Fold:
Amino acid sequence: MSEPRDRIDDWLTREVEPLPPPPGTFERISRRARRQKARRAAVSAAGVAVVIGVAAAVPGIVSAVRGGGHQPAAPVAANSPQATPHPTVTSQGTGRVSAQSSSPVTVAPSAASLLNGGPVPANFQPTSVTFIGAHTGAVIGQAGTAGACSSRYCTSLAGTMDYGQKWFGVSAPQTGAPDGASGVGQLRFLNDHYGWAFGPQLWVTDDAGAHWAQEPTDGMRVTDLETADGRAFALFATCTGSGAQFGAQCSRVSLYTSVAGTDRWQRVPGPTADLPQAGTGQAASASLVLAGSHGYLLAPSGQLFSGPLTGAAWTMADVQAPCSTGPPGPGGQPTDALLAAGSGQLILVCNSATSTGSDTQTKTVMQSSNGGTSWSTAGDAPSSGIATSVAAAQGNLVVLATDSGLYLSGNGGTSWQLAETSPPGAAAGQQGFSYVGMTSDTNGVALPADPSLHEVYITTNGGSSWQPHSVSSS
Structure:
């Protein structure tokens, strides 16, 4: 008779056959794995919803929107709320501001919304547009209906991947339209991660617009910003202008720069650290252009400065440019002197004062092929309309935006032709165009002065003709 211990040992050494799982177990595991994979794919798709390449040689259109590694915020501020960040502000020496910006708390959209980029909210009114490359771009503006947006802000972004044929929603900074010291109305991107919304506040994203955080400016207002070579350059101004005239009544203007991803802004050394003013009691503004490996700054005093895009000191190129900047427009940009760069030369459109009730203006076009050290007269642009913006490209191409339409010159400003009349349906006092920019030798974009038209104008033939494109999801 065997011992009990022997029977136990014998049982323990036998091969054990596992019991089968309950019915449906494998199906449940498979479904769960597929859902998890779909969620990961949706988040990844949201990160690459918009892609805009870098073109540092094109002033004013240096932008990018693409995804990063964070969970995206809701597509548009007008449709999806998110908490306002609270950055920590510390000053480090003279003229240096450092911020550690927190990421907003967000409500993640659905997988379908992420995969499709999200809808563009109704009543989108673009105030700034950026296009680079053959297909991609973005706009910022107010959307929805004031008081009926999902938060108290209606600021929204929209992107396109087919040069304005169709648009989709992109998450936006949680702030309002420009109003004195608050809000934003302009947009620039450096590459596929870093972008800034500004004028007068300053907001930054490091994940292509999925999240935005406000950066401190020590009470100053950002009136201009451009990007190139891993950096952003901006004009920080001490102003007291109210409403949309946030860039008015400025007593001090300084050029700052920031390396992308550092959240640190510091003054560019040299005279641009504290720009001379036009004179006591005189309204003045400043203009910033980046082209190739250099930047150019037309100061309120009329002096022209230039320097490298490395953060090193800028120097004076011209003690007195052919014309001064004059008072700022609603977006903070000069009204009397419009600066652009193209074909290895600078273009400066000098606008005379206009009489009350007149829609004509003398516009003298100046050229410089040596970085602004000396200038020559190219010719006069048409007197019809008040000039608002100028763009230049290779081949001596110059496009001038006015309140009567878009004018084109193929010889550096010597002769001109009307390329596009004022948009049909523009409200009284808001005719014509507020902005024009060339993204290549053939492609360009313009904004109607009346944002309630919900349109962006596109050219693909060097500015010879322009077509309106509605900023909507359809």
Notes: The first helix runs from residue 4 to 12.
